[in-house]
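Structure ticket #2291
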Amino acid sequence: MGKREPEEIPDQEHEQLYQRVCAIDVAKDSGKVCVRTPSGTGTERRVSKVWEVEATFNAVSQLGEELVGMRVEKVTVESTSDYWRIWFYVLEAAGLEVQLVNAREVKNAPGRPKTDRLDSIWLAKLTEKGMLRPSFVPPAPVRALRDYTRMRIDLTQERTRYWSRLEKLLEDSLIKLSTVTSKMDTASGRDMIEALISGERGPQRLAGLARGKLKAKHALLVEALTGRFDEHHAELARLLLDQIDALTGQIDKLTTRIEQLISAMPAAATAPVGDPPDQGTGADSGDGGHPTSACDRPGASRTPRPAVERLDDIPGISTLTAQVIIAEVGLDMSRFPTADHLVSWAKLCPRTIQSGSKNGSGKAGKGNPYLKGVLGQAAATAARTDTFLGERYRRIVKRRGKLKALVAVARSILVIIWHLLANPALTYCELGADYHSNRLDTGKKVRNHIRQLEALGFTVTLAAAA
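Resolution: structure written out below.
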């Protein structure tokens, strides 16, 4: 066997050697700081200085001034819970280059005691040799937007829990309203609950409050609204509805603030008119070779549109979903060199595990729960549409199952999002549910069917249709 040409693999941007580094092992009330610099004795030996710093704004600010005076090139902060934030934000504001690293990627050092001092030294040694992969931390405006969108998601989930508590209360009073209405928070359902709280107990009069299509279920409503709703149920239901209304007001306030923050971002505003730069929108080989559905065709619309509106064009994505996506991944796609980098960061693809001639795949990982949550909802919504993404779900679900099909569609959506955000001049183009059938290789399909029939013992003769 002849000698093969060696493969040249260039270092990534963060994989470079540093002369002066700092690493911080983070705890709740303090951090163990280690600075590694040349010894200054004319040799190649290096020296580590370790001390403890309180996790307060003034103490960390003073540390930042000291590190700037020591000409530190790179600072590594361990991502312990939320305790890393004060270290990252303050040192970043001091003008230092700070990177956040996952603790599980740097603590695998068997054969030594587990102490904060040794952890900080080990972290500094890895930093100076460029062996740490930094985590994604968005810029300050996106971090502020993320706080608002995550708070809105949390409050929405809390409101859903209050609706569930109200449903349980109605079940306790023998009212079976949820078996007739599609959901509790409809206008008809709210009117009936308010009437029950006000003292109305007649099932006929309560069922008469139905609106729209629910009027056709009058008989079922009469049976469902017959129960033992008494004063203590009314008092508790009033408390629950007040909590729901308060949460709704807070959610609406957050939504207004989110819209203001996004409109204030220059990158989220309307894109400039003109021919878009090449972003590799021809095909996505990792997604079965299908185009990324970004409009790069001749004659495609070049009307400048905001980022939220362009993401809203994707099936399954609403305006609220687009806001969450922008808050979680940001608008600067240079942080993710390719769409595959973004998909890998979001943990929407399995890990590659290779050993010798064996190739396998491991678990994808947890990833960002807020991003994966909204992408999962978008994929489930797109799966019910007569679009390219809906057809993609139906093609995969037959052989891979529902969960893997939803993940595959979520991955396709994220690939499209990367292209739209990487090139603000592009807009989404729907390929249609018949995209794959129109590109079908008829000859290959015929050969496959003939091969299957011959395997069953038949002789196949083809004749052209009349």
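Closing remark: Strands lie at 21-26, 30-38, 46-54, 74-78, 98-101, 351-355, 358-362.
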